[in-house]
Amino acid sequence: MDSIVQSLFMDGMETANIGIFAINEEGKILYVNAYVCDYLGYTKEEILSKFVWEINPSLDVHPFKMKEATEYKKPTEAFHIAKDGTPIPVEISSSLYTIEGHTYRTAMVQDIRIRKKNLETIALFHDLLNNSHDMVFIIRIEDGYIDYVNETAISVTGYTLEEMNEVGIERIRRPLKEEDTFFRHSQELKQVGKLTDHAIVVRKDGTEFPVEANVRYLHRDGIDYDIAIVRDITDRIEAEHRLEHMNQILERAVAKKTAELQKTVAFLNAYKLALDAGNIVSKSDLKGRITYVNENFCTVSGYSSEELIGHPHSIVRHPDTDVSVFRSLWSTIQSKQIWQGIIKNRKKDGGYYWVDLKIVPLCNPEGEIIEYIAVRHEVTELIDHQETLKKVLTTDALTHYGNRYRLMNDIGMVDEPYLALINIDNFREINDFYGHEFGDLLIVEVAGAINAIIQERISKSFYRLNGDEYAILGHDTSKETFVTKIEEIVSTVAQKVFIIKEEEITVQMTASISFETDKSQLFITADMAMTSAKKNQHSLLVYDPSLLLNEECENNVKWTKKIQTAIRQDKIIPYYQPIVDNATGEYSKYEALVRLIDEEDKVISPFFFLEIAKRTKHYGTITQKVLEKSFEYFKECDLSVSVNLTIKDIMEPQTQKIIFDLLEKFGIGERVVFEIVESEGIENFESVIGFIKSAKECGCKIAIDDFGTGYSNFEYLLKLKADFIKIDGSLIKNLHKDHEAKILVSTIVNFSKQLGMQTIAEFVSDEKTFEIVKEMGIDYSQGYYFGEPKPKVVQDL
Questions:
Q1: Any bridge partners for residue 575, and if so which?
Q2: Rounded distance, CA 460 to CA 75, Å?
Q3: What angle do CA 58, 63, 67 make, to 5 degrees?
Q4: How far is CA 377 from CA 2, 342, 343, 446, in A?
Q5: What is the pTM of this model?
Q6: In angstroms, what CA-CA distances link 731 with 127, 706, 726, 736, 794?
Q7: Phi and psi for 454 in degrees, rounded to 5?
Q8: Would you say 78 and 56 are in contact if contact means Cβ atoms under 8 Å apart?
Q9: Which residue stretches of 536-544 are H helix?
Q10: What is the pLDDT of residues 506-559, one digit of tens each?
Q11: What SS3 state is found at 279?
């Protein structure tokens, strides 16, 4: 009987729809089932000849110390390497067993490639929803509470989601008939399941526009929802009115318009030629079968017209595009509406291309759809530029681990995160003694040592922030374990001898930890603990509010007094750094940079006082003094001056008034450039664009500062219509050694030229960097190679 049970058990494991491993304490694979052979591509004999780390490289312990290994009773993600070298994402649960004094591991493994693909598809759909030209609302029927709106709805109405719920749906949606309230509309929707609603949307500023909403009823978890896709139909109504008027004229004058009609036909033929020349055009019948394609369609897709005509458009459908997009597309055009959106298509050779697509239903005089015409503009380069930018922005150029921007993003994505910061002690002295190249190599080696200690999930948890500062993001573990791990890192690295350029060197490290539950304060509190740890010579310090409160208050009081004294004694002054024309070498522009002169006549950088000035409400006064003194200084010369403005400055009515009053007083608008700090997000584009328009009417120009970090995106440039792009110094200073940084800068330069914008390289500190910048076609340079900020300008190179 036991042999029968054992046979059934083995048959069950062999045919299980999940991978099963058995491994001995040396890491030797003793058993796998057929599922494992299928997804890895090995025969069973091939796998049984291997050790586990040959399949799962993340297990880098040799030999495999089974008794020290971790049980993964909770599913853990990893990568297995298939026979052909392909990394396969898997989810592993494992247990340890001891039999006759020997330890064995059993592991249950699930191939999660399809799940990963589904998550990517969901993320893409979310992006498409937020970038839709239509507004999307999800509203609770019972009380009219708005659970969700997309970015388009926020942009078009001017309300945030919170403001919408404060004013109520009845204030935003005004029915065409007074009796057609939202309650009545909702009750009808519950009866019929879906309907088309026509109403008026009232913006936050009181303006109105007509809309058409495709609405569906949804019941989930005991709650009734009204899901509405809302489209502004102002243009359509105006077009219908114009068309009706034209029809009346044509009916009365058809006999006299024959000649004009012939001219119109000729014009339309010319328009068709122009349309074909610059766009990807196709026509299809009512079932979606292609009836016409232009030459551009064939060139971009790789198909001939013979291969396309008669086939549905799904021949170029890319599997990354969710099927719901096409359902929405067909629903829209079959209701005689124009559909517009950005779609990823597939080429004949398996490649892809992105298009900005508009599909127009063409109707006969009776209003019946007779065919569809689709006009596309290829935007592959723009989309790919954004993807390249995202990748580079999240990776440290020196160590290739995550950078500060990646850390901040990951903190927001993780539940209950812990953060540790680690600094190399006396790193400045190492740099000064051995040189910056030696220092960079040491930073890389120390990062590798920390990485080796952390082992698990390093791609999501280890970061190099800047200089000699590293960060480790922890979660799903106890605080005690996290502290122990950081202590181990500090002590282990301190004992390690690093060999750099044949020099032996050891380093000591200081670490700080924060378990702050407010994610927005996690990095700040860890940094405060680091400052205190260095000041008091602790090798490790865990953040405690009571420990650091007095230090912070003391510092704030000290700098607040310095700021107040400087303002009272008129010692807030601008320093000027030259911006050089790369083509001529002329110092034609200068950037005004604020400085504070203290009681001992020391020149203080804004790094020490500007944030405190913002918190103590002195920031506006400082901005006003920089503007006034800079405009006064430059009014009598032919040079241009750049002044930094934050989004807060632009959104502050009093600051705006001061700016335009000073522009009028000094009359130098044509020589003023306002640099908008690009690392700050813009929530109200309309207000910012309004300021830019007013500034340009005064002759001013606009620059985007620090482009290439933070919220960098090309749509940002298109909306703000800037004159200059200042490429962030973190990219420029690494051009000579970071290939990815060079690719990103080249992308920014090329795209800027296409938009008619000029570029300025920041942090140009030596001749080698200056030569690279000129070779890349950047228009202007700024940095210590040309001169540090001074209270007066110089005009010679």
A1: 593
A2: 17
A3: 90
A4: 70, 9, 11, 49
A5: 0.43
A6: 28, 10, 11, 10, 27
A7: -70, -45
A8: yes
A9: none
A10: 999 999 999 998 888 898 889 888 988 888 888 999 988 765 555 666 677 788
A11: coil
